[in-house]
Amino acid sequence: MDKNEELINVANRRYATKKYNPDKKISDKDWQTIMEVARLSPSSMGLSPWKFLLIENDDLKKDLYNEAWGAQRSLDGADKFVIILAKKNLTPTSKHVQHISEDVQNHSFDPNSAFVAKLQDFQKNDFKLNDERTLFDWASKQTYIPLANMMDAAAYLDIDSCPIEGFNRENVEKTLEKYNAVDLKEWGVSVMVSFGYRDQEITPKKRQPMDEIYKVIK
Ligand SMILES: Cc1cc2nc3c(=O)[nH]c(=O)nc-3n(C[C@H](O)[C@H](O)[C@H](O)COP(=O)(O)O)c2cc1C
């Protein structure tokens, strides 16, 4: 099989799993690979405004079952259940931007730098990220990149997954806070995703034809 064929196979192989086999576990090696793919994901300005909570607390899982209607079939049998958090208030002079600049990208943080000015201009004028909600949604959008990368990596390793937006954000955040799992001043819930092994056939893809979604502009 050539690489092109292999990629298309992985894309067809990944599907939103509705029934997991609760007895089948993901190996540590596979799980670490999926998490490493998440970590290596790209983000706007390299800010990686995300955190991944692997939920292993059974009481918390029970509470989530009631609040996350879209996650119930995952919670019933998936080996891994992840909540992806997005950073709040990701402004150019925020602690997170400072941390990424200094500790990750290894250049000292200067509030008067060209980088800070660029990020300020981009947020204010280009994308109009001018309030808490728009800033959170911008960070939340970034989290869908590792989300997709993790699911594709899983499919490549023959592991099933399901992305999950079927939940009430406020309720889930309150629940996570109850378990001291999140500092809501800093983080909000973006999206969830489950991984495991299916107990059903892979659903064939239903998609729009290429000519409906793809246009070459000359
Ligand atoms: C962002 C996002 C949120 C989703 N939320 C849920 C969900 O809460 N529960 C669920 O069972 N499926 C959920 N899905 C799965 C979609 O329904 C599914 O991906 C879509 O119908 C296409 O099918 P396929 O993934 O099997 O190809 C979600 C998918 C995405 C991308």
TrEMBL record:
CDD domains: NfsB-like (cd02149)
Keyword Flavoprotein: yes
Transmembrane segments: none
Origin: domain of life: Bacteria
Keywords: Flavoprotein, FMN, NAD, NADP, Oxidoreductase
Domain spans labelled Nitroreductase: 13-197
UniProt xrefs under SUPFAM superfamilies: FMN-dependent nitroreductase-like
Cofactor names: FMN
Annotated family: Belongs to the nitroreductase family.
Name under which the protein is recorded: NAD(P)H-dependent oxidoreductase
